Amino acid sequence: MNNNKSMGIYIHIPFCVKKCNYCDFLSFNSDEATMLSYINSLNNEIIANRQTEKTVATIFLGGGTPSILDPKHIYDILNTIYKYYHIEDNAEITIESNPGTLNISKLKDYKAFGINRLSIGLQSSIEAELKAIGRIHTCTQFLESYDAAIYAGFNNINIDIMSALPNQTIDSYKKTLETVIELNPTHISAYSLILEENTPLYDFINADNEHMLPDEDTEREMYYMTDRLLKQSGFHRYEISNYAKDGFECRHNLSYWEDADYLGMGLGASSYMDGARYKNTSCLEKYINHSSNPKDIIENVTPLSVKDKQEEFMILGLRKIKGVSISQFEKLFSKNIYSVYGDVIEKYISMDLLSINDDTLSLTSKGIDVSNTIFTDFLLED
Ligand code: SF4
User: Fold this and answer.
1) Over the chain (382 residues), what is each successive 10-residue block's mean pLDDT?
2) Which of 273, 289, 322, 376 is the most buried (most CB within 10 A)?
3) What distance in angstroms lies between residue 65's CA and the mean position of ligand 1's atoms?
4) Which domains are delineated in the chain?
5) Which ranges in 5-157 belong to alpha helices (H)?
6) Gap between the Cα atoms of 175 and 294, Å rounded
7) Which residues form ligand 1's pocket by a CB distance below 6 Å?
8) Ligand 1 centroid vs 351 CA: distance in angstroms?
């Protein structure tokens, strides 16, 4: 979908049953009336932003927990999008969900509304680990939700899992991996826990409980085990933290890494349209009161300079295991990639952290392990 006639839509639903202990996303618990006002405002924003020039290749309902909403609200949101935007025939339409908020009837509704991809947040199959991070569900509830999704007809399902959790061991993480592999989903996102400041888990760990986190060697072993077991089970890694069966890579997320346009709507949502980044207000009151005029809810607009775009092309593109196209860089920026990044490319090739294959520059497996350090080197001086 990397052409300027095509775009993705991201819809942010900020509501959750309860805040997880590690979460610093824009999400919170709310009452019915607020949710209703929010949906009204969201529909207003969707209408106000309507696009006639571009077609929509992907829609992603994320959060928060979109599955917390009554399905009639999901229907409203999608219907508004279908009415005011031109949706491509084979569009990928994803909803994020949490076990504990799903049932067969909801899932059947989602299918009937055109949703063709389901993402379920499991995080761990071990009850004590789920409790430690404050998840609302058990593993049994997750398994029930997964069965219900299959029964409702979903054949494209992502499962989110996490490593480096408090008290997690190599064996317990292996159990989580084996649980999800056995279900044979089409996609697995495997992230490491990042302790974010101002979260209850951060405070708890820093109150002399650091010993509860796996040490660096254990964390590394979990990381390598993820890659090993998932690859053995027929998944391929297409991004640093994302694995898919052939043909089931998340097209919406790929568009973020491939410089494609996307329109984010809802509280705090970000957009990238026609070379500029936009960000909506994170203030719920302001969002609810002003959403019929998108200009009033945009908190900041950042037009990207050529330098910004070159950095993003490299840093986002190298997140993909297939890497970046050297000729594409030249086509976009009318400059040879080596005239901009020659030194850094040479340095990392000599360290076996980057490799070149025909037209492609990509991280090696060693490079993936230290990707954050490498990415910093792709930032250009002013
Ligand atoms: S369900 Fe997701 S968005 Fe909601 S609090 Fe937990 S981690 Fe955050």
Assistant:
1) 78 97 96 96 95 95 97 98 97 97 97 98 98 97 98 98 98 98 98 96 96 95 97 97 97 92 97 94 94 85 95 96 96 96 97 96 95 95 80
2) 273
3) 7
4) 6-256 (3.20.20.70), 309-314+322-377 (1.10.10)
5) 32-48, 71-84, 104-112, 127-132, 139-152
6) 46
7) 16, 19-20, 23, 25, 27, 63-65, 98
8) 39
